[in-house]
Design goal:
The protein has helices at about 1-15, 65-80, 85-95, 120-135; strands at about 30-35, 40-50, 55-60, 140-145. With about 140 residues, the protein is α+β, with helices and mostly antiparallel strands. β1 (about 30-35) and β2 form a beta hairpin. The mean pLDDT is about 95. The structure holds zinc ion (ZN). Zinc ion binds near residues 39, 63 and 66.
Length: about 140
């Protein structure tokens, strides 16, 4: 347990300091702004989708370390996946942070089981994922409220 907590902090800090795919996409086919007013997290997720495959995904915004790290790891996880696989990942990640799934083959994303001990942070961990789902649904804005 202590090991897992330690790994969680290490991974969150690394992705917060050096977020992957933290940029804009000029010719994005899908984009959505996500807001988590409870914490003040604002995340914009943009994707380029061609033939049902996510060929590019990136995010911008500001917020707490968890929301930023989650955005970073979400973009890494979804890059190159089909839209169907991206939806499936969203549902599995959501189940993971809410305690309905153990993580198993979710790889690095399994560190987010760490937020289960802090229910108020679950929205921080999922806002970028909600924004990704929202963008794929061709909607423009999603909020956790
Ligand atoms: Zn937050």
């Amino acid at each position: 347990m202590a090991y897992r907590e330690d790994l969680y902090k290490k991974v969150i800090l690394d992705h917060n300091k050096n977020p992957r795919n933290y940029r804009e996409i000029a010719d994005a086919t899908h984009q959505c702004d996500g807001a988590n007013p409870l914490c003040g997290d604002e995340v914009t997720v943009a994707l380029t989708v061609g033939d049902g495959v996510v060929t590019d995904i990136a995010f911008t915004g500001h917020g707490c370390a968890i929301s930023k790290a989650s955005g970073s790891m979400m973009t890494e996880a979804v890059m190159g996946k089909t839209v169907e696989e991206a939806h499936a990942l969203f549902h599995r990640f959501h189940a993971l942070v809410t305690g309905e799934e153990e993580g198993g083959d979710l790889g690095k994303l399994a560190v987010f089981t760490g937020v289960r001990s802090y229910p108020s942070r679950i929205k921080c961990a999922t806002i970028a994922w909600h924004a990704m789902q929202c963008a794929l649904a061709k909607e423009e804005r999603v909020s956790t409220e």
